[in-house]
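PROTEIN SPECIFICATION:
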Amino acid sequence: MPFSKLGLAPSVCSSLRGLGYTQPTPVQTAAIPLVLGGADLLARAQTGTGKTAAFGLPMIDRLASRRRRTSSRGPFGLVLVPTRELAMQVHRSLATYGTPVQLRVAPIFGGVAMPAQVKALKHGVDIVVATPGRLIDHVQRRTIDLSAIEILTLDEADRMLDMGFLPPLRRLLAALPRSRQTLLFSATLSDAVVRCAAEFTSNPARVDVVHGDPVAPTITHRIHPVDIDRKRDLLVHVLTQGRASGQALVFCKTKRGADRVGEYLKRSGLDTAVIHGDKGQGFRTRSLADFKTGRVSVLVATDIAARGLDIAQLPLVVNYDLPLVPADYIHRVGRTGRAGTAGCAVSLVTAADRELLRGIQQLLTVPLERVTVTGFESTGGAGRTTARRRSARMPSSIRPTSLPAPI
């Protein structure tokens, strides 16, 4: 089914053809007609399934015609996201989609100076992509007027709730018109997300393109049992043995831990960058750019810093530390196996990780495959989720042979 059959305006469809987009993804096919019809929406979709276009294209379609009939400087559309990196990614996508119809999209997030954002708002914008904290700063300073918002999207709502954003979300939504249309997108539909949807939306239509596992079926899930004092050496082994050129994203649970792992990988000869909340925004942006273009082969990150990272054909995600919240596993491994490509998610686990493993396994319908790496056998034992054992060599089907193409 072409995009033109979904009800999008010819100008928007023409823009998509110019970008090389010819067929909508399942979430786009399901969501776009509902949004164009004015319905509030609760949607569950995996990362990498095209959900930004699923809410962005109908938002642009709607606002392209409305802006010409009002003298307000806007904004008319608002997208709330949990992190700066995701704000930058969503902004880039919406700005690209909106260029042919001359829609103005502005990113609003912390870590950068306010004046440039204030200037953009004064000149007038159609869509704002924002993190809750910085947007509240603008509301308090009266540098933004949210009274003209017609359509709101809460992107990665589950992650925002996990990060404690419910109070600021309530504060912001209280400042929006009650007549607005509200779209809520989430990788998981936890009880908290469903309650949030009941509070913020009105009789929402539901779209669920996740059947079975909430992660892509192209991802292989593995755990490597290891003693805690051998984790860094095993990480180097995983990143170097059986792999050709390619990139890997490594998750750590703390900022200090990420720094230590990053330094160890650098001393081991791997081109490595580290990003976390204490790194300046300029540094984080440069590091992400280096990773996307292949100048850095390994990116070590905490959960908050890696939100919004979108790399084509990223072959490997490594959980150096398991996430404390099982749902974060879904967000982490969703960085690989995108758009139908094969990917591998490897977790380094110690005997102390049994309960965390159990929580993660409950979210998946496929087993976490236990793979003992020769020379790194655990003496304390790790939670077994499947009886299969193999060598730790990455299968050729997901072994990258060249660097991913830049986005």
